[in-house]
Amino acid sequence: MKMFLSSVMKSPKPLVHLFIQTLRCMLVSLFSALVYWTAGACKDASASPSDAKAHANKVQNVTTPTSVNYHFTRKCNYKCGFCFHTAKTSFVLPLEEAKRGLRLLMEAGMEKINFSGGEPFLHDKGEFLGKLVQFCKEDLQLPSVSIVSNGSMIKEKWFQKYGDFLDILAISCDSFDEETNQLIGRTQGRKSHLDNLYKIRNWCQDYKVAFKINSVINTFNIDEDMTEHINQLNPVRWKVFQCLLIDGENAGEEALREAERFVISDQQFEEFLDRHSGVSCLVPESNEKMRNSYLILDEYMRFLDCREGRKDPSKSILDVGVQQAILFSGFDEKMFLMRGGKYTWSKADMKLDW
Ligand SMILES: C[S@@+](CC[C@H](N)C(=O)[O-])C[C@H]1O[C@@H](n2cnc3c(N)ncnc32)[C@H](O)[C@@H]1O
Ligand code: SF4
What we know:
40% of the residues lie in helices and 14% in strands. The protein has helices spanning 2-10, 13-41, 49-60, 95-107, 127-139, 156-162, 178-184, 193-206, 227-233, 266-275, 287-291, 317-320, 322-326, 333-338, and strands at 67-71, 112-116, 144-149, 168-172, 210-217, 237-242, 282-285, 295-297, 302-305, 312-316. Helix 2 crosses helix 3 (49-60) and helix 4 (95-107) runs parallel beside helix 5 (127-139).
């Protein structure tokens, strides 16, 4: 007790933060109950609880989790030096709990789920991921199910088993020069990242999955011209991110990565974009656009709020429900729409030339 008191005296910030969060939760619950009472239960005895809930949502301006990124594992077989979602825990939810959370999200309005990590194909050799992908498409009937992966662990068998249930597969590739990938850490040993990329591109074609590429622009690849390779690979979307720093992940004392040496300026990022202005599928994401425009769920199904430059976790949706947790997500819906977060995301609607 004495030790606890002295540590609180030294650094009272976490306690104050907890106090404010609890107070906000209590006020929101009180407000919900009040709105429910005035909107439905009191005025019109025939109003259903779901009508009242929808009304309460509107009044409270609660965010709908239309598009969610579930980072169910933090473990990875690569060592990208700039990585902003690092192996701080090795926790993964039991499959049935993950499914329960995904159902809660669907009931709260989720239309698109993206599975990320860590490396999502690592846990249970991709079976955990496959089962969730199948569940989201078959049971929850989500319009869009996607994955972002480094591509190194994917086998053709996975496509045979689960390809039908997947809309989009994004593979991250930051350079078309093997040496640069080695320097970045975007590799496992001396294996070729690029051979995998091309192999997966072909499997996507064979198994009718839309293929996407993600690239992080940093000091190691800033002078590259990737036009030829991207045109050859012909992804449905090429996401180009400006390398982002997150305290506690890839910057600051407690971080597992030190990404400062990868950071580029806004002007350098603009120059890279100008060089690639002829690539029609390019979707740029500067630090400003990226920081708060994603709904991120961590391995415990807690929303991560990046507004303070860190990833501050909410309570788990499994404990408090989606609506309570999402209040602490820091999500900027306007920026999400501005960066083109809502697009044709069902493969059935893409009219692809398979
Ligand atoms: C954290 S990774 C997890 C999925 C998978 N391991 C991969 O690399 O694709 C998700 C995406 O974030 C990108 N990313 C990682 N660190 C980043 C950073 N510091 N700034 C911007 N994007 C980053 C990755 O390149 C990848 O496209
Ligand atoms: S960005 Fe690199 S290190 Fe981070 S999770 Fe993806 S592959 Fe692993």
